[in-house]
Amino acid sequence: MTSEEIREEYLSFFEKKGHKRLPSASLIPDDPQLMFTVAGMVPFKPIFWGKVDPVYLRATTCQKCVRTNDIENVGRTPRHHTFFEMLGNFSFGDYFKKEAIEWAWEFVTQVLGMPEEKLWVSIYQDDDVSFSIWESLGVPAHKILRLGKDENFWGPAGPTGPCGPCSEIFYDTGREEKAPEGEEPTPANTDGRFIEIWNLVFTEFYQDEEGNLHPLPRKNIDTGAGLERISAMMQGVYWNFDTDLFIPIIENIENVLNVKYKQDSNKDISIRVIADHVRSVTFMISDGVLPSNEGRGYVVRRILRRALRHGTLLGAKEPFLYKIVDSVVKKMGKVYPEIVEKQAFVENIVRNEELRFINNLSRGLDLIQKIIATNGKITSEDAFRLYDTYGFPIDILRDIAQENGYDLDEKSFERYLQEQRERSRKAQGEVEFAQRSGYENLGLESVFVGYDTMKSEATIQKIKVKEAFVGAANDCECEIVLDVTPFYAEKGGQVADIGNIYNAVGNFKVEHTYSPVENVIVHRGKLTGKLSVGDKVIAQVDEETRKATMRNHTATHLLHAALRNVLGSHVRQAGSLVEPSRLRFDFTHYNSLTGEEIKKVEDIVNRIILTAHPVVTEVKSYDEAVKEGAMALFDEKYGDFVRVVKVSDFSEELCGGTHVSNTGEIGLFKITSESAVSAGVRRIEAVTGMNSLGFVRSLEEKIAEVKELLEVPEDGIVEKIKKLLESNKSLQSELMDVKKKSVNINEIVNNSMTFEGIKYLSAVLNDVDAAILKELTDEISERINGIVLLISKLNDKIVLTVKVPKDLTTIYSAGNIAKSVSKVLGGGGGGSQTFAQAGGRNFEKIEEALELFEKIVRREVY
């Protein structure tokens, strides 16, 4: 039976049992405690915890999952994976143990056709009910194992919470595994023969702070069956990697890297690692997780770099992983259409990441071999330096330690890492954030009417002066809470409204509006006169700033849609700022936009504006809105009902912000800048309305000033600048020649030294700028065909350049030399393997820097 058939049979089986078939949730969970979706039950946690009422009492899913806690075992064992699929059926206060057990047995024995004699089950030691149910199905008593809390009791996920016993189904592979003498082999006394294929969790208790168990009023069922494991059992193989889920991917790896699977045990490990990791990377990037140095992005980067390292063990010398993505898409794209839609985007990101790391990987691996040859192992200090300098994840270093038969001191590595973080925090300055606002548990509620009006009558509910709530306030800075307000509280990238709250005896100038607690809107500002709790007031939003903000917010939606139209559907919002004067939009895309692409985006947005489409807002159920195509943002949290903002059939997004009623109100849309935020994230800034007019006028003023300075008409500006640049270039060249001639190159060259046939030299110069220093470094390196370090004392700073001939880059890196030397000088810098530039300010350390350079060349330090 194929994996596709198993997946479909499972979901169909439980549909027939009254379950709602739901699609897999994103790998990015709506759960602050989790980085990734690690199990099928994760999307249902709010229901299990009683925070949300279920829409369906029964559900079934095939959930994509990511776990990295045992990443070092991936490829070395039959069943460890970073990405896997979990089949699950769930009951929310509906059926319980009897149905869960009976249906599980029916599915494995009748639908899958597993022989009953091959199956064993385990239960929690005190769970007599489950024992009776299994026995009634014909499972022999000796095959129903009673196990302790460590094996067969789930939860709670923390000191308190829902929990309960579980029951597992095991498949007997028949492999020869030693059991204690005189005992029959069972899942409890052997390792590797019996494979757990399904876990049934019976969530029936609540554990309190003292560890006492109390029956839950609503009992739930949460089951998880690994598709990879069931596929292996049904296809008669022991390793999950030998199933149809992996074979097409492994065949692609064989073709791309020109290797053969199952001919070399060490190579087999690397092939399996790549096959597993490319699945993880494909799905994570498709779900919007981009490689970075923190959070989820760092997990992607770690997995990707680990796969790259195993590729080098198989002989890869250039990017290859992006070529394997296609086999993942072909195998799984029918079930997960998002990876088909994002294939080109994923391949582009993976290839760019490979290019970023592959040179560092090669140099770092060379250095590791030298360290191991010298010291026998990598110390925690070495590990940290490899992490800090070459970007080596700890997983790679752990693998290398395992391959060379020693343990990596990860505790000391973590200490070095923590010390670096502390230094970074101190350099940035400490920032403290208040944990509580003071508005919790007061029973307050503010009704927001700002979608329909910018002015309303209201009653003051609370006044807060400094940290105290007061009955009245006079001429002071304070905060006010109203029962009804048109003021928008800062949220979702849109800045807060400003304006006035007033009556006959007091005027409160609103400078900021925020929501510290759900459904409570707080106005902060300055009071002139007197206002009291219970006063009737008028709340008036500043219309000019609100309307400017609305123009920019609607324009942001149009920009998002236009970017997807021009660049592709991989574009997703990664952050935004909407304020009266401008809009800022961050989005997922790996390359800078060309001038032509920017023009296309501007043209599309302005056409939609000129067509004067109505901007329609509706409140719908979340499922209905997403089904209709509304864009939802990964980092936003949505309730059961959402506000949908729609512009014709061009743009449809879930959004709680304020918008114009017609696109024609936006006016001219003009992009003012496009830049990088981080790897894979770009930023566009733009203006609309009167701010666009201001932007155009500013350009006109600059052009007028340039005309006056150059003494030419507008159409002569470009030609005049070209002539000035040519003249300046000629003068610069003459000046450089004069400065170069002032340096005695022959004298410097005569001071070169030799180590094992490699020539090198260093010299200190005065008042030579970076451009000339580079030329001198290139010329001297070429003359001696060796490594050159030149240091120039330039006013109050030090500039240095390093050159390494190309044929020596397998041993030395100019970038690493410059980085090490500049650290001594109290600065920093870097570059390529052949040329690097850096700086510093510690003049008294120049001699020490020269000594370090010589030690590096002579390989006395690494």
Protein model, in words:
- The chain has 862 residues and is an alpha+beta fold.
- It has 5 domains: 3-177 and 184-242, 2-Layer Sandwich (BirA Bifunctional Protein, domain 2); 260-425, no CATH class; 447-541, Elongation Factor Tu (Ef-tu), domain 3, CATH 2.40.30.130; 550-696, Threonyl-trna Synthetase, Chain A, domain 2 (Threonyl-tRNA Synthetase, Chain A, domain 2), CATH 3.30.980; 743-857, Diaminopimelate Epimerase, Chain A, domain 1 (Roll), CATH 3.10.310.
- It contains 24 helices and 32 strands.
- The chain is globular, with a radius of gyration of 33 Å.
- Residues 424-435 and 634-638 have low confidence and may be disordered.
Pick out its properties:
nine-stranded mixed beta sheet, 39% helix, 5 domains, six-stranded antiparallel beta barrel, 24 helices, Elongation Factor Tu (Ef-tu), domain 3, BirA Bifunctional Protein, domain 2, single chain, globular, alpha+beta, 32 strands, 862 residues
User: What's the gyration radius in Å?
Assistant: 33 Å
Q: Uncertain regions: pLDDT < 50 for 5+ in a row?
A: 424-435, 634-638
CATH superfamily of the largest domain: Bira Bifunctional Protein, Domain 2
CATH topology title of the largest domain: BirA Bifunctional Protein, domain 2
Instruction: For the record, give the distance between the C-alpha atoms at the N and C termini, rounded to a whole number.
Output: 55 Å
Mean pLDDT metric: 89
Assign the CATH class of the largest domain: Alpha Beta
The helix fraction, in percent, is 25-40%
Number of structurally distinct domains = 5
Major beta sheet summary = 9 strands, mixed
Strand residues, percent: 25-35%
Question: Judging from the principal axes of the Cα atoms, what is the shape?
Answer: globular
CATH architecture of the largest domain: 2-Layer Sandwich
